[in-house]
Amino acid sequence: MLDQPRSSQRFEGKPKDEDVRLTKRILELVRQRPRWGYRQICQLLRREGETLNMKKMYRLWKAAGLKVPQKRRKKRATGVSTNACHVQPAGFRHDVWTWDFIQSSTIDGRTIRFLNIVDEYTRQCLAIKVGRSITSEDAIDTLAELFAMHGVPKRIRCDNGPEFISCAIKTWLDLIGVEVLYIEPGSPWQNGLCVSFNSRLRDEYLHQTDLLSLEDARIKARAWREDFNHNRPHSSLGYLTPAEFARRCAASTSVAALLPFQQHSDSIESLPVSQTNLS
């Protein structure tokens, strides 16, 4: 032991038999409760009659290399900025529909949800689905009714909400041939037309009346939608109402469809008529 540096001589402690026994029991409890931390496991040990404080429990926990695993976040569909409304604007009626949820409550404090569907080109509110809870199946049923009434749109713009990214909706829309434009997460301005509609709905309807019940909310939402479509002028539409603008779009589409046939008939009438020589 002579001529050895003092720093090389260290005491190596041996774990006590009690610590070994406690660690073994801790590991057994962790296998049963993998989401519990050391505080909850310590309480279980105390209920079993073990005498140990929180500091000792934490020391044994760290020595065993234990750690509560981090929660795994569900993989969400991530949109891109190229799907924004100013990058891919609607070019004609029923080109792009947009939909989104807003939330309010009835006078008894219970939550009520609104699913709003708007035609971006005409600003026409196609539907306001009202319910305590609106699932992806409810959203599909609402879209199916609108498709039967107005036809199938070319594209639908939305955010990355759980209802919109569900496999049921994505599979159904893909089967029909509707392209879904998912905006970039955390960028509501990329779905600006629907956000603007939601603000009008809150300001002119939800903040101006009390919702007595679910049925009362549905009746009032239906009346407000009719007023919005037929009586509220929009500066972006040349101060026409959405219904007036939609009728003009439908009329111009009909005229445009007739033009090729009219030009074809005019060209036929202008052709020289050859007479057959009779001998």
UniProtKB/TrEMBL annotation:
PROSITE patterns named in the record: INTEGRASE
InterPro entries: HTH-like_dom (IPR025948), Integrase_cat-core (IPR001584), RNaseH-like_sf (IPR012337), RNaseH_sf (IPR036397), Transpos_IS3 (IPR048020)
Protein name in UniProt: Transposase orfB
Source organism (scientific name): Blastopirellula marina DSM 3645
Limits of the Integrase catalytic domain: 85-250
Signal peptide stretch: none
A single MF term (Gene Ontology): nucleic acid binding
PANTHER family listed in its UniProt record: BLR2054 PROTEIN, LOW CALCIUM RESPONSE LOCUS PROTEIN T
GO biological process annotation, one example: DNA integration
Domain of life: Bacteria
